[in-house]
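Write out a sequence, fold above all:
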Amino acid sequence: MTPFVAEIVGTFILMLLGCGVNANVVLKDTKGNSSGSWILITTGWAMAVYVAVVIASPYSGAHINPAVTVGLAAAGLFPWSSVAPYIVAQFVGAMLAAFMIWLNYRDHFNRTEDKDLKLAVFSTAPAIPNTMLNLLGEITGTFVLVFAVLFFTDATILESDSIIGLGSLGALPVALVVWSIGMSLGGTTGYSINPARDLGPRIIHALLPIKGKGTSNWMYSWIPVIGPLVGGILAALASHLLVA
């Protein structure tokens, strides 16, 4: 696998399992409907990160998140020339996964009347709408993620021509970081902490013929994109100041 393909595959797996646990919890008449709720969702996303990192890390460093890619580049650990291809791959993987989740759960989408629950399978929304605080929540959560990732990369054994990344041994630690973020900081916005994770599936939601789906809440959609990017850059700056 090339790094580009690995980022597509890794992000696809992340989103297939992540949006999958969302669907299992919120859609009507699934086996997991309302059972475990937030604990099940945060655990499902953490395990999704684990599986995705294990698969993609040998080939691309398993960024699977534009905020991680930008954060690593801002820290001088990843070439800026590779940022755009990685981000494109991440969006492709996220959008393909969102489409597959709709196919797998199509009957349950049809049985679910609440349009907000249907959108929740694909993208995040604030518990209490407040632009500045919602933005702060995404910045804070992503700061923690990228700050931790930057310390994981310091321990990565590099080979010639390899892309610096988490490595397979970093799969479990980063999954635990995402789990911790979800449990501690995710209650305000649903912790997108990943622009591709939110915007890619939101676009698919807008395009799919989902019965009674309502709007895709584009007024909020910039927050889960800008917030994580800002958080990633701030984490890179903080790491540079503390470690230099």
